[in-house]
């Protein structure tokens, strides 16, 4: 048998304990917040029928869907996102109680050209409400976004808010035919990254006139608080029906956010934000760090056309998505990530074969008190056992040797500062709680 | 565009909120216990190179691996289990600190014939320690198994324990050549299901002699506590080197379990248990309900040959696996599952458009206190809003109408008994905590 190289396919990765610990911490916060807002978990299978997945994402994207044939010759694909499976789920449950509020956190697969930080398998964390046209939905999605980024530990971030209807009205106001709206938005979308001068020359190149471009550019100049910006927008776009709609929707969202007591500094109205070329039809929102040049950490919006695609009806829907990989990268970048490389808090040393029972009792006692604890399995040299704790980043080591067994005590070593102390067994849990800075009961 | 049927591929399923809530509860307990024993999370990609996955599971199993070709023409497969990916991970990390203790909870795919309760995509929950030959590892795996099933809420279960070396020694004692050991074990494995008489006639049919079969059968007769059974086994198999080894290993495990204070009634030595035809080489264990005829809820054992398959060395390893689908099915069957169909605890009614801000403030306040709360988004008839709570199984409904807004109070309705009461806003959190039977702070 020839030796097989233990390699991973291109664009794939293992998520090692150090990665998983951060990811799990973030996901736990995200899930808890979703549920606090009344969203419930859903999972769909990785494999869907080929015809479900295709014809939804555009030709270029569709090339990235992994295809396979099942053993009965049916064509299947690996899911490309979580939105089309949601639409399929909605269509196959005609009598679903509405609004249907679900969150879904699962990997998706895309056969993209591998490049730094981009993988062919990655998690999407989506939260969507299906069946309500109320702007409270959109306001809640923004509120939970702010709550999540705050809980994760980001200080300087803002969730930018706009409405596709504002963009439509702006195109109208500039006297550009609505059919070219996507073309205009594609250029506008780059404003935050490349600045207005470059957007302007791109639009000129595309054949738009200076007066047209000047109207489009007006919206970027507004500043002040969100309600002020909205009034200024109204001065330009008021009277254009789709503009009035968009303004009214945004005003409602801002009012809801105020009633929810969401910190104003995290919400920023940006009338030029377009959020790509996606399927959005109303309010859109996207979160960025304000002190780094990271791209979006997540975003979403209202998309009243997509969820009904299989049932051929228009079902109002709004949702948002969190970019787990980008959030984790941002945490590393800003040095906010305090989590170590291990979940284990205590290593119990195996002093000798004779004292095996004592060591086992000790580690069991630590676990019963809720501490994540490991026992070294072989009675090898103590130096090797301490080095294991050190290399793994386990903060505390407990040792029960002959003297300690005699005296009903243990040696406790703090691996961070090297300080060692004798702790009477009767004070064990109390001392460990102090050292690990937390209440005794935690399981 | 022709209408596409929103169907799922055969053998695939959606995990709806009601399913997910139970699964998440079980998985949270499993993960917390794994970490309490010093195991750390790992995830590997769904897609592996075809040559990694094949040649490991036997021809019949291999037919069940989903195959696909990536966009560069490389052959890939969807992972069939979590053990081969672990072996691949170990081989590609030569300098990994040992023991490497990881848990991995991810779906696997098998193109099996769909049948009731068997799916083509299902989760495996594996926990394995790689790099230690110590019997403490195996004892800890048994201890954490008992702890998990106890925490989930099972009362009547036992983890059966044996050692492949006992089976080998028994085959020797019966005077059967060791090459036929698998053949013998295949029949013995059915003992618990079909009884000894049938096993006996199967063995006779296979050509084994009555004296041989009588030796094999002796082990099933032993009873009493585990140490007694072990002594009785020793009377028969003692002196056969592999038997002595197996007995010594089991004795060590039983001693460790005693030092860990694991409840004895959950541990049952079963010298006839073979645990299929898998790759095990030492201790094996498997958990069953004792008051139902459910099949195994999970099991594992020591497999010193498999993990080193890609590095061509023998690396000691032991691990166990929890059958999430079977655990959930068992919980339904014994009626232990108390979880409702929703995670949401409170529905706040939207009384009128005029009182929207008040309703929003109220739901925000509930969320800040850590209650999972939903706001009804449209000011429709109250009957419809209450019916929504009722259909979803949300236990409490809060209403703030004109009178309540005036009086700084809310109406609280308990949906289980229909009782409605007026609660002053200042007592809100306290009363909700009482109704939901828990401490106020929980986020």
Please give a quick description of this structure:
2 copies of one chain form a homodimer. By secondary structure, the first copy, chain A, is of the alpha+beta class.
Q: Helices and strands in order, then pairings?
A:
The structure is a homodimer of 443-residue chains.
Chain A: H1 17-36, E1 40-41, E2 47-49, H2 50-53, H3 59-62, E3 67-69, E4 75-78, H4 83-92, E5 100-109, E6 121-130, H5 135-152, E7 157-163, H6 164-173, H7 181-188, H8 191-194, H9 196-205, H10 210-218, H11 226-237, H12 241-259, E8 267-269, E9 283-289, E10 298-302, E11 317-322, H13 324-333, E12 346-348, H14 356-368, E13 373-375, H15 382-392, E14 396-399, H16 402-407, E15 409-414, E16 420-424, H17 428-435
Parallel strand pairs in A: 1-5, 7-8, 12-13, 12-14
Antiparallel strand pairs in A: 2-4, 3-4, 5-6, 6-11, 7-9, 9-10, 10-11, 14-15, 15-16
Helix pairs in contact in A: 1-5, 1-13, 5-12, 6-12, 11-12
EC number (chains A, B): 6.1.1.21
Catalytic activity (chains A, B): tRNA(His) + L-histidine + ATP = L-histidyl-tRNA(His) + AMP + diphosphate + H(+)
InterPro entries (chains A, B): aa-tRNA-synth_II, aa-tRNA-synth_II/BPL/LPL, Anticodon-bd, Anticodon-bd_dom_sf, His-tRNA-ligase, HisRS-like_core, HisRS/HisZ, HisRS_anticodon
């Amino acid at each position: 048998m020839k030796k097989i190289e233990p390699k991973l396919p291109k664009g794939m990765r293992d998520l090692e304990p150090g990665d998983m610990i951060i990811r799990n911490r973030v996901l736990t916060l995200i899930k808890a917040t979703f549920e606090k807002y009344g969203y419930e978990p859903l999972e769909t299978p990785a494999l869907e029928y080929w015809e479900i997945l295709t014809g939804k994402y555009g030709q270029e994207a569709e090339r990235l869907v992994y295809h396979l044939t099942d053993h009965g010759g049916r064509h299947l694909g690996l899911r490309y996102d979580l939105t089309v499976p949601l639409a399929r789920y909605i269509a196959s449950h005609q009598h679903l109680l509405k609004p249907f509020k679900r969150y879904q956190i699962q990997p998706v697969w895309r056969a993209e050209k591998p490049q730094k930080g981009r993988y062919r398998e990655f998690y999407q964390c989506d939260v969507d409400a299906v069946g309500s046209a109320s702007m409270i939905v959109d306001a809640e999605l923004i509120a939970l976004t702010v709550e999540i980024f705050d809980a994760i530990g980001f200080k300087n971030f803002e969730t930018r808010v706009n409405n596709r209807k504002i963009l439509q009205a702006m195109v109208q106001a500039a006297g550009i035919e609505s059919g070219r709206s996507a073309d205009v938005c594609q250029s506008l979308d780059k404003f935050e990254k490349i600045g207005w001068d470059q957007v302007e020359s791109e639009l000129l190149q595309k054949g738009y006139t200076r007066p047209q471009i000047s109207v489009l550019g007006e919206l970027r100049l507004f500043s002040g608080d969100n309600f002020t910006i909205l009034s200024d927008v109204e001065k330009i776009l008021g009277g254009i029906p789709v503009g009035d709609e968009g303004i009214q929707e945004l005003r409602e969202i801002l009012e809801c956010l105020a009633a929810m007591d969401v910190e104003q500094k995290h919400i920023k109205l940006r009338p030029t934000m377009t959020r790509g070329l996606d399927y959005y039809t109303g309010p859109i929102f996207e979160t960025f760090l304000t002190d780094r040049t990271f791209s979006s950490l997540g975003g979403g919006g209202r998309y009243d056309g997509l969820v009904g695609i299989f049932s051929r009806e228009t079902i109002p829907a709004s949702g948002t998505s969190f970019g787990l990989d980008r959030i984790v990268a941002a945490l590393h970048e800003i040095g906010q990530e305090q989590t170590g490389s291990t979940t284990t808090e205590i290593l119990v040393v195996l002093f000798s074969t004779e004292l095996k029972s004592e060591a086992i009792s000790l580690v069991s006692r630590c676990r019963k008190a809720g501490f994540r604890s490991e026992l070294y399995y072989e009675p090898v040299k103590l130096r090797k056992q301490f080095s294991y704790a050190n290399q793994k980043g386990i903060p505390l080591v407990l040792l029960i040797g002959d003297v300690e067994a005699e005296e009903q005590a243990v040696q406790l070593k703090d691996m961070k500062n090297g300080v060692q102390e004798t702790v009477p067994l009767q004070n064990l849990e109390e001392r460990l709680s102090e050292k690990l800075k937390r209440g005794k009961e935690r399981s």
